Amino acid sequence: MRNVIVTGASRGLGLAIATALVAGGYRVLAIARTRSAELEALESAAAGPGRGALQFYPFDLLETAALAQLVSRLRQVGPPYGLVNNAGLGTAGVLAMMRDEQIETLVRLNTLSPILLTRHVVRAMMSERAGRIVNLSSIVAATGYQALSVYSATKASLIGFTRSLAREVGPLGITVNAVAPGFVDTAMTQALEPKQREQIIRRSALRRLPEATDVAAAVEFLLSEQARNITGTTMTVDAGSTA
């Protein structure tokens, strides 16, 4: 059974990704600060026949100095086959009004933490000469959006990271890709004002918002053998919002 590390797995996109991977036969090593009721239910359901498995590891990814110890614990289960860097903050704010600590936290969790975590995990993949890394970016990395300048910057950085790392580790059989969701139908977009949601839906080619399961399917594909010759690319899942 292949081991896939999924960060931010307790809710939203991370939970949807973990659910899809468990159903696909992977052992998910789920990272989150706390175990949600939904993740606990998935952990119990994963014990069923013909499914994968799920193991939960409580960890605050802002504690970057402890990432090496985290990866050491994860490797006790077996060599990592996949890493899904999903955890992140979506804090909105007009740049001129944001506090230094807000900006630093966004950059630390959305950019620095996945880079450092990947450094530790990719070393294990290099020894196995195989692996899949998927970074969760966003369409706002390319399009921009009002009051999301810092968030957009962090997500754009993951695309550059993806492309360059793919060059570094490709000769060792490791692929590195990104998935860029649009405004997905989750709790985050449900918090938008109805007028904002309507505007986003009206702009999309399919006149709807993608769902978390759509993003999860893209991640599962990039982890699969069918995607063995895809690396350094960004897959957009936005119902045609950027078409």
Could you outline the blueprint of secondary structure elements for this entry?
Blueprint: E1 3-7, H1 12-23, E2 27-32, H2 37-45, E3 53-58, H3 67-75, E4 80-85, H4 100-128, E5 131-136, H5 140-143, H6 149-169, E6 174-181, H7 187-190, H8 194-203, H9 212-223, E7 234-237
Parallel strand pairs: 1-2, 1-4, 2-3, 4-5, 5-6, 6-7
Helix pairs in contact: 1-9, 3-4, 4-6
In words, what does this structure look like?
With 243 residues, the protein is of the alpha/beta class. Helices cover 45% and strands 17% of the residues. It has helices at 12-23, 37-45, 67-75, 100-128, 140-143, 149-169, 187-190, 194-203, 212-223; strands spanning 3-7, 27-32, 53-58, 80-85, 131-136, 174-181, 234-237. Strands 3-2-1-4-5-6-7 form a 7-stranded parallel beta sheet, sandwiched between helices. Strand 4, helix 4 and strand 5 form a beta-alpha-beta unit. Helix 1 (12-23) crosses helix 9 (212-223), helix 3 packs parallel to helix 4 and helix 4 runs parallel beside helix 6 (149-169). The N and C termini lie far apart (38 Å).
